């Protein structure tokens, strides 16, 4: 193979791989809770929001996003265990960009900071953890205390 052909093939492979990675990340968009209520100082979300049905098969989402018009940013709610959840405010502590859920972690698209499903920094440039909220549950609902 000629040097020029090798370089062209290598460059096209790199560009194609990058485009495929971006396309796959776009497919994993976050699920936004359909019904989010405010009762006193608690955001209330049904646990059933975590249930996903595809092709007549039921599975559980590991994260949903709750939007409430009076909050500046949405809140990611991670299902950690059968009855354990974490609620994380999606404002990056680095420069205030919105953080996005990617599977079981969060990414700031602005500068690449990454956070785990409890809001702790796993990769900078952010140095502080994300704001979290106390979470309580009952049989049917998740209560996120905003106070």
Q: How would you portray this structure in words?
A:
The longest helix has 25 residues, at 3-27. The protein is an alpha+beta fold and 147 residues long. The model is unreliable at 17-27 (pLDDT under 50). The chain has one helix at 3-27; strands spanning 36-39, 42-46, 51-54, 57-60, 63-66, 75-81, 84-89, 99-102, 105-108, 114-116, 121-123, 132-137, 141-145. The protein folds into two domains: 1-29; 31-145, 3-layer Sandwich (Rieske Iron-sulfur Protein), CATH 2.102.10. It is globular, with a radius of gyration of 19 Å. InterPro entries: Rieske_2Fe-2S, Rieske_2Fe-2S_sf.
How are the secondary structure elements laid out?
Elements: H1 3-27, E1 36-39, E2 42-46, E3 51-54, E4 57-60, E5 63-66, E6 75-81, E7 84-89, E8 99-102, E9 105-108, E10 114-116, E11 121-123, E12 132-137, E13 141-145
Antiparallel strand pairs: 1-2, 2-13, 3-4, 5-6, 6-7, 7-12, 8-9, 9-10, 10-11, 12-13
């Amino acid at each position: 193979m000629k040097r020029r052909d090798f370089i062209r093939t290598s460059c096209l492979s790199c560009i194609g791989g990058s485009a495929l990675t971006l396309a796959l990340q776009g497919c994993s968009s976050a699920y936004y809770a359909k019904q989010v209520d405010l009762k006193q100082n608690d955001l209330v979300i049904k646990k059933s929001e975590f249930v996903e049905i595809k092709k007549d098969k039921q599975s559980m989402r590991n994260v949903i996003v709750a939007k409430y018009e009076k909050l500046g940013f949405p809140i990611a709610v991670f299902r950690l265990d059968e009855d354990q959840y974490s609620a994380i405010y999606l404002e990056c502590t680095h420069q205030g960009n919105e953080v996005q859920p990617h599977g079981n972690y969060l990414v700031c698209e602005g500068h690449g900071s990454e956070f785990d499903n409890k809001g702790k920094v796993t990769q900078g440039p952010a140095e502080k953890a994300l704001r979290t909220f106390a979470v309580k549950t009952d049989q049917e609902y998740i209560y996120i205390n905003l106070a």
